[in-house]
Amino acid sequence: MTKFASTARAALLGLTVAVAGIVGSAGIAGAASASPVAENTMVIKVQSRDGQNRRVTVHNQTGWTMLRFYASDARSSSWEEDILGSDTLASGRSWTVNIDDGSGACVYDFRAEFTNGEVLTRGGINVCQIADYYYTR
Known about the structure:
Elements: E1 15-19, E2 41-43, E3 55-61, E4 66-73, E5 94-99, E6 107-114, E7 119-126, E8 132-136
Parallel strand pairs: 3-8
Antiparallel strand pairs: 1-2, 1-5, 3-5, 4-6, 6-7
């Protein structure tokens, strides 16, 4: 299955998810969650060795809650796993993700799914050159 035709799941290595704002028992950035994010950060230690910053703050300004978020190397034909997992990202909130899978890639494709059924997909995002990515109406 191709990345743009399905939500095939594969292991995404090297993610650092840092929450923007207060988390408490609500999970990622004030969103509903069955299990809170421990100390606001989850770290899996696989990083590229090129010194590039692949941290991107994802802003949800759509008016709807983001249910799923995927970031896959643009060279991949399938989507990696849902980075949000069991969490969601409420409208008006943001969170920072280190999109580094250890491969040295800078260009990724993003996919976000929302409570209104909207699926927004954009390819060719250079995460080594941007610090913020906005989802808007």
